[in-house]
């Protein structure tokens, strides 16, 4: 098997233009300029700004969905377009670390939902990632999304720059803070602005509907939505 298929991250970046001190020489390459924040400001300002929520829970329409819907409702009130994608029932394969995405603007593998999902992430102005807690972290499906999106954006720099990010976690008992950290680390490493709330964006519940009884959590999710809306308003 050729070395080309096993290039390191550094080699992949060098191949597409180099991560040098002239750094602005990092090339977006084949990425569509209209899809990258800052490259087409006039078009960006004319269109309606959008918030995308990605639900990593393995259960559709459960507690995580409820919390994300609370956040999106606040954004909807402010006139922003919203979309809620639930990953339950879908497959997202693990990253193969092939770096074939370098200069292409998306993953080269189209045998699952990732390419379509990544396209939605790039076009969104705000991304809210939510997950129920599995083994004290995000679900394996959401983790695969995060890892593949990280590699694609690393080899096509700037695709998430200056977007707004919000993290949501739901737990029966423990592990929610680890899930929040995993999500926020992704946002911070992609040059995104991370929105917070009056407390951690965590809800507690086991059976469907139980998280909505967590009054503090619902208040935090509403405030998170309001803070994301405020940030979007400043980025127009």
Automatic annotation (TrEMBL):
Gene3D superfamilies: 3.40.50.360. Signal peptide: none annotated. It holds the Pfam family FMN_red. Keywords: Flavoprotein, FMN. It comes from the Bacteria. InterPro entries: Flavoprotein-like_sf, FMN_Rdtase-like_dom, ISF_SsuE-like, TAT_signal. Residues 49-204 form the NADPH-dependent FMN reductase-like domain. PANTHER family: NAD(P)H-DEPENDENT FMN-CONTAINING OXIDOREDUCTASE YWQN-RELATED. This is Flavodoxin family protein. The lineage of its organism: Bacteria, Pseudomonadati, Verrucomicrobiota, Verrucomicrobiia, Verrucomicrobiales.
């Amino acid at each position: 098997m050729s070395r080309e298929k096993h290039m390191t991250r550094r080699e992949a970046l060098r191949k597409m233009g180099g991560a040098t001190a002239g750094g602005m020489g990092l090339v977006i390459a084949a990425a569509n300029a209209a899809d990258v924040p800052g490259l087409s400001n006039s078009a960006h300002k004319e269109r309606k700004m959008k918030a995308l929520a990605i639900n990593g829970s393995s259960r559709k329409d459960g507690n995580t969905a409820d919390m994300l819907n609370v956040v999106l409702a606040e954004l909807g009130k402010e006139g922003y377009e919203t979309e809620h994608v639930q990953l339950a029932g879908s497959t997202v394969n693990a990253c193969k670390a092939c770096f074939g995405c370098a200069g292409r603007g998306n993953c080269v593998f189209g045998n699952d939902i990732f390419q379509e999902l990544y396209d939605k992430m790039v076009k969104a102005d705000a991304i809210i990632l939510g997950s129920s807690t599995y083994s004290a972290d995000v679900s394996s499906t959401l983790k695969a999304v995060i890892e593949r999106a990280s590699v694609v954006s690393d080899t096509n720099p700037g695709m998430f720059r200056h977007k707004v990010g919000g993290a949501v976690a739901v737990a029966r008992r423990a592990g929610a803070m680890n899930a929040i950290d995993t999500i926020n680390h992704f946002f911070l490493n992609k040059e995104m602005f991370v929105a917070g709330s009056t407390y951690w964006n965590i809800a507690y519940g086991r059976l469907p509907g139980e998280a909505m009884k967590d009054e503090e959590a619902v208040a935090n999710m509403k405030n998170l939505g309001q803070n994301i809306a405020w940030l979007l308003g400043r980025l127009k």
